[in-house]
Amino acid sequence: EHDARPYVPHTADLDELGRAAASCRGCPLYAAATQTVFGAGPRRARLVLVGEQPGDREDREGEPFVGPAGALLRRALAEAGLDESSAYFTNAVKHFKFTVPEPGKRRIHKAPSLREMTACRPWLVAELAAVRPLLVVALGATAGRALLGGPFRVGDHRGLLEPLPADDAARRDGASLPEARVLVTVHPSAVLRARDRDGAYRGLVADLRVAARALG
Ligand code: URA
Ligand code: SF4
């Protein structure tokens, strides 16, 4: 019964989609979070980057990738020769999921469940149908699964250029996904947590270089 579809308007207007997403109640995650963090970027973009879900900073500011993971991602994009101002940034899940270990303590990120990702997916499909990118970069397993289907291991996909599968549900709803390719890489938060942070960062940049080459 968790499903964003009743809240998703039939439109390719990103502003209208974003306004509607602000009052989505498609799964229980809206209740504890501050606000919906919808995608951000140009209304048409050749490149879309998909993360997992907003973090603490994104939840408070209402914008994707404005925290530490976003800073690392932007640095990696620049190093790979990709222009961040022409890219659209979004997440597989639009509300921050967290636990508070003790009252008054810092909020700790919690991975969204498959049900929550599936519930939220119609927003991602609507964004892709509106933005119509050539290339979609999936940052981590949740995004990879939302775009390519699961079960999913980043290591089985990373660095490849795979076709974005047609979405039957979207077609029923009258939206059509673009003929885009999907490139899977690690999530920037995983780079921040990695024991070999430099190595993980270099791996992210190497994958993003594949994206840069694909976009010419
Ligand atoms: N991590 C994500 O996946 N998305 C954000 O917007 C920020 C951090
Ligand atoms: Fe709706 Fe997605 Fe938020 Fe769940 S996480 S309430 S489906 S926008």
UniProtKB/TrEMBL annotation:
<dbReference type="InterPro" id="IPR005122">
    <property type="entry name" value="Uracil-DNA_glycosylase-like"/>
</dbReference>
<keyword id="KW-0479">Metal-binding</keyword>
<dbReference type="Pfam" id="PF03167">
    <property type="entry name" value="UDG"/>
</dbReference>
<keyword id="KW-0411">Iron-sulfur</keyword>
<dbReference type="InterPro" id="IPR036895">
    <property type="entry name" value="Uracil-DNA_glycosylase-like_sf"/>
</dbReference>
<feature type="domain" description="Uracil-DNA glycosylase-like">
    <location>
        <begin position="38"/>
        <end position="209"/>
    </location>
</feature>
<protein>
    <recommendedName>
        <fullName>Type-4 uracil-DNA glycosylase</fullName>
    </recommendedName>
</protein>
<keyword id="KW-0004">4Fe-4S</keyword>
<keyword id="KW-0227">DNA damage</keyword>
<dbReference type="InterPro" id="IPR051536">
    <property type="entry name" value="UDG_Type-4/5"/>
</dbReference>
<comment type="similarity">
    <text>Belongs to the uracil-DNA glycosylase (UDG) superfamily. Type 4 (UDGa) family.</text>
</comment>
<keyword id="KW-0234">DNA repair</keyword>
<keyword id="KW-0408">Iron</keyword>
<dbReference type="InterPro" id="IPR005273">
    <property type="entry name" value="Ura-DNA_glyco_family4"/>
</dbReference>
<keyword id="KW-0378">Hydrolase</keyword>
